[in-house]
Specification:
The complex is a heterodimer of chains A (290) and B (150). Chain A has 290 residues and is of the alpha/beta class. Chain A folds into 2 domains: 9-178, Rossmann fold (3-Layer(aba) Sandwich); 182-286, STAS domain (Transcription Regulator spoIIAA, 2-Layer Sandwich). Chain A contains 9 helices and 14 strands. In chain A, strand 10 and strand 11 (198-206) form a beta hairpin. In chain B, helix 2 (34-47) runs antiparallel to helix 3 (52-72) and helix 3 (52-72) packs antiparallel against helix 5. The longest helix of chain B has 21 residues, at 52-72. Chain B has a single domain (11-146), classed as Heat Shock Protein 90. In chain B, 41% of the residues are buried. Chain B is globular and about 45 Å long. Chain B has 150 residues and is of the alpha+beta class. Classes of the chains: A alpha/beta (290), B alpha+beta (150). Chains A and B meet through helix 8 and helix 9 of A and helix 2, helix 3 and helix 5 of B.
Chain lengths: 290, 150
């Protein structure tokens, strides 16, 4: 990929036109959930145009602790499809797409919200959609439309799917680039920050040879306020050294901060052996739902 | 020589899995090949009829023994695995410490042996039997995982 990250998704503010690049759906949903959560918390209207069905989008948000039903009912959150907004009959027209965005901005103002957040999954452009070559025109139009407004837009690009040239072209129209903070990644292991709920995410297999990166990720997670999630649902092996390190980090937190260890039963067994069940503030959440 | 206070392997068990018979798996390892060691042990444990949970335990136990050989022993070692009718037996051997060991390493190694939550403690919690024998020629650590309900 040709686009680096220069901002955290949690730092985005009014007027930002951010380019989010993601490598896997978990990244996309995690970062988007943080963008949506922070927008709702500030009383803004939030629109997410996802590439999957709106139902899937709202389910993913709800799983990450966002009060989706209440926000939908209040008209503060909209989960939309590309079709009917960015696309018309699977055809892309930059002008029509801009009309859609400005109509969203006008509606937001009419409804009395102090600002608007729009997240747009651009994965539709990976399919043979007519007019897809006009995508940079749209990104340029968005950049112009946002100046001086209380609107921010998060454009979402799958960095495995889009070619580096396209990514470089469109990223030039954005005010910042956003990606999941990654502490370590190779073929066997990925350690990254999780944004919603806040914490860290481990995938693959981890042993004592990566305690340095794990320690750094945990140290940063502890620096956030509030409860911490350690998402190990995509972790297939953890050794005693790393499991102890996570337990020690949990033990070092204040009594008012809870730590949730999300993992499969096999990983959960190791933490239970180390006494996680008896530690106050620590919960082992095993099973297949994250 | 160190040994553990846990249950001894039954005499018949040793005869069935270990002495004489050629192992189902015989693999050298070092710090770069612990991943493939774990993958091989998982495959053999599963094939030998251990449940998914016991196979995971076996993998963790062998990893802890092998990691100890890498970190506190010769830096490399050898795993042998025998699958008998009623159990899986694994032996991790290494050729002893590579010359000098600094104080921090020695302290770490001592914790590995006995302290709750550390390597050998963990191995003893999950294996049906575990033993470690150290001598001038190195260390032999063995674990047994019995098949059937546990």
């Amino acid at each position: 990929m040709a686009v680096g990250a220069d901002a955290q998704v949690t730092d985005l503010t009014a007027g930002d036109h951010a380019c989010l690049t993601f490598g896997e759906p978990e990244d996309l949903f995690d970062l988007t959930a943080a963008f949506v959560r922070d927008g709702l918390a500030c009383g803004l209207k939030v629109v997410w145009v996802s590439d999957s069905a709106p139902q899937r989008a709202t389910t993913e948000l709800a799983r990450r602790g966002i009060a989706v039903e209440a926000a939908l009912a209040a008209g503060q959150l909209t989960a939309a499809e590309c079709e009917g907004g960015l696309l018309t009959g699977q055809e892309f027209d930059a002008g029509r797409a801009m009309d859609w965005l400005t109509s969203q901005m006008a509606a937001c103002q009419r409804e009395g919200f102090p600002g608007l957040r729009v997240a747009v999954d651009m994965s539709w452009a990976l399919r043979p959609v007519t007019g897809v070559e006009k995508l940079p025109d749209f990104e340029q139009g968005v950049a112009a439309a946002l100046a001086g407004t209380t609107v921010s837009v998060l454009c979402q690009y799958d960095r495995e799917g889009f070619d580096p040239v396209t990514l470089a072209t469109v990223s030039a129209f954005h005010t910042s680039s956003v990606a999941a903070a990654t502490y370590y990644a190779d073929a066997m292991l990925r350690i990254c920050r999780q944004y919603a709920p806040p914490g860290i995410r481990l995938a693959g297999e981890i042993d004592y040879q990566h305690t340095g990166q794990l320690a750094l990720a945990l140290t940063e997670a502890i620096r956030f306020e509030g409860d911490i999630a350690v998402n190990m649902t995509a972790l297939t092996f953890i050794d005693g050294t790393c499991a102890r390190m996570i337990m020690d980090a949990a033990r070092g937190l204040g009594a008012d901060r809870a730590v949730a260890l999300h993992c499969h039963p096999g990983i959960a067994a190791t933490f239970e052996l180390l006494g996680a069940d008896d530690m106050t503030g620590v919960s082992v959440v095993s099973g297949h739902d994250r | 020589m160190t040994d553990d206070a846990g249950p001894r392997p039954r005499p018949g068990m040793n005869a069935a899995a270990g002495d004489g018979e050629s192992p189902a798996l015989d693999q050298a390892f070092d710090s770069d090949s612990l991943y493939s060691l774990r993958a091989a042990v998982a495959a053999h444990g599963s094939q030998a009829g251990l449940s998914d949970g016991r196979t995971r335990d076996l993998v963790l136990a062998v990893h802890e023994l092998a990691a100890n050989a890498v970190r506190h022993g010769a830096g490399q070692g050898r795993l042998r695995l025998w699958a008998a009718d009623d159990a899986v037996r694994c032996e991790v051997t290494d050729q002893g410490a590579p010359g000098e060991t600094d104080a921090a390493d020695a302290a770490d190694a001592a914790r590995w042996q006995a302290e709750p939550g550390h390597g050998l403690w963990l191995v003893r919690q999950i294996a049906d039997s575990a033993s470690v024998q150290s001598g001038v020629s190195g260390t032999v650590a063995a674990v047994i995982f019995r098949r059937g309900p546990s």
